[in-house]
Amino acid sequence: MKAINLVSAGLALAMGLPTIAAAENLAPFERGLYVAPMASYVEPDSDRTLDDGLGGTLALGYRVNPGLAIELYGAFSELDAVDGDGTSSTLSGGGIAALVFVPQLGGLHLPLAIGYLNSDHQGSAGEEYKGLSFEAGLGYLLPISFGRYRFGLRADARFRHHNGQDGQRLDEEASGIQDILYNLGLQLPFGLQPPPPPPPAPEPVVVAPADSDSDGVLDRDDQCPGTTYGSRVDERGCAPPPPPPPCPQTLENVDEVELRGCAAGDVIALRGVNFDTDKAELTETSEALLSEVAQQLREHPSMQIEVAGHTDNQGRASYNLDLSERRAQTVRSYLIERGVESSRLSTRGFGETSPMTSNDDAAGRALNRRVELRILDADSAG
């Protein structure tokens, strides 16, 4: 009967309190010293003509690790006779207890105790009974927080056996006496919980660099703020310069001279550069045009030029070849005089070997008598 009562009490206690997931969450029992005052309800065995009674227990304990706590305890209770004849029994004593936890079951634990119990039976035949007592049961500890102070609500049900090895027994049975104890109280640790760690620093707010005109160039680098949305800009945020004009195929007038758009492989016929018949000296109008050419070459210092001379087919071919070379040399010399580095200029005479058109008429022969600028290299001409 006592075993059935104990199991029922344990099940009721376990179902009536919330389940805690892990022992490390039980702040009052994490580790360290605590005190546990508890009220007790005592149900004596049926062999004694005593009614249920009340009492109290005070324990001083230490949580050794998540699975074990050790306590020293003192207990007191008083039971009255069933028939109300004035007879009572006072139970007092103390001992040592171990609370065995299974961390995976939260606050559920098994209290096991051994102690010394004194039963003072008051009445017509007052007797005193002293001896060892043994306790075992089922308990639960519910953690509670109040600010940084964390304590626990504690409850357990225990079976207690008093073996009667000393003094006068209250009955003649060899089995001793048994009680069922229900304890409810608090478990109060010494000290406060450590303060919580400071909250993590907020993530830095990354402010995207501004691009007010949305041209793809940040304001800090934009040398032309306020460009029209969608406009094509360069790395400075400015509209790129207009493309250079195409390289001219012929140069005849001074105001036509513009080499900015020329690239390697381009050939420019200097129609404004003329020579007297069978001569290699420049005319006055030719010098004016070549002066502008020299200015353009100075503005594009990486441009490498071959000055090519050509003639028509009138006269001996060898003579025409020599004449074309001398005319090319004349143009080169003039450009050098106007500040173009000699290393950038080479010459070549083609004579009558590279006509532009037919030599059958005077107009065709006039086109074939020419000096050309052949662009060999112009990496930065534009």
Automatic annotation (TrEMBL):
Cleavable signal peptide: 1-23
Record membrane topology: Multi-pass membrane protein
Extract one GO BP annotation from the record: monoatomic ion transport
Domain OmpA-like: residue ranges:
262-379
The entry's localization annotation reads: Cell outer membrane
Q: Enumerate the UniProt keywords alphabetically.
A: Cell outer membrane, Ion transport, Membrane, Porin, Signal, Transmembrane, Transmembrane beta strand, Transport
A Gene Ontology cellular component where this protein is annotated is: cell outer membrane
| Record bears the keyword Membrane | yes
Name under which the protein is recorded: OmpA/MotB domain-containing protein
Q: Name one Pfam family in it.
A: OmpA
Out of the domains of life, which is the source?
Bacteria
Q: Which stretches of sequence are listed as region Disordered?
A: 211-243, 346-365
What is a GO molecular function of this protein?
A: calcium ion binding
